[in-house]
Design brief:
By secondary structure, the protein is of the alpha+beta class. Helix content is 31%, strand content 27%.
């Protein structure tokens, strides 16, 4: 799914099994995992309403980055999810009357980390922190991740203590809002068969 497609095509909302999505990512990256001696561990992840292709792109880009930006150590990736309360995708304390139920996902690695001054910049289109000669990439992946999460009504951010790898966090609502440009799977099917 290209960046332009991500930004312009209506979302095809359906029930997405995130554990199945991660299994597909593992299968897609099996050569990379074998070559780099990497591993991906994940909990039982929730089902949610979303665009299946977008969720696959989101998880694949995050895991691929985690496997790519490592030193000599074998890359390890840990993926978890838990329920949380948010207001407009932002974490909030229990008891807030406007809070809604969300899922909080984390994708943690043991890689090189990201300096704090770049924690926001990395989500901008074509932003790369390292020369292409050192780490392959286009600078599109994390911008695409941000777009996917935000179009689904969530938020994405990172934590990266020095020399401790990086954890990408993102929130996704249990029940995403339905702006006019979004479509359910049924609406999409009806439109494509006209």
């Amino acid at each position: 799914v290209s960046y332009v497609t991500l930004s312009q095509q209506p979302l095809r909302l359906d029930t997405v099994e995130m554990t199945e999505i991660v299994r597909m990512v593992v299968a897609n990256l099996r050569v990379t995992l074998k070559t780099r001696g990497g591993s991906i561990d994940y909990d039982q992840l929730p089902s949610l309403r979303g665009d299946r292709k977008h969720m696959l792109r989101l998880m694949q880009d995050l895991v691929d980055n985690a496997l790519k930006f490592v030193t000599t150590e074998s890359p390890c990736v840990w993926i978890t999810a838990k329920e949380c309360l948010c207001i407009d995708g932002e974490l909030t304390a229990a008891g807030e009357p406007e809070a809604s139920r969300y899922w909080l996902f984390s994708v943690k690695d043991n890689g090189i980390g990201i300096p704090s001054e770049h924690h926001t910049k990395i989500f901008e289109l074509f932003e790369k922190l390292h020369p292409r000669t050192k780490y392959d990439g286009t600078g599109i992946g994390l911008a695409a991740c941000r777009m996917i999460v935000e179009r689904h009504g969530g938020r994405i951010w990172i934590e990266s203590p020095p020399n401790e790898g990086t954890t990408f966090f993102f929130t996704l609502p249990h029940h995403p809002p339905y702006p006019e440009e979004w479509m359910t799977e049924t609406q999409w099917g009806a439109m494509t068969h006209e």
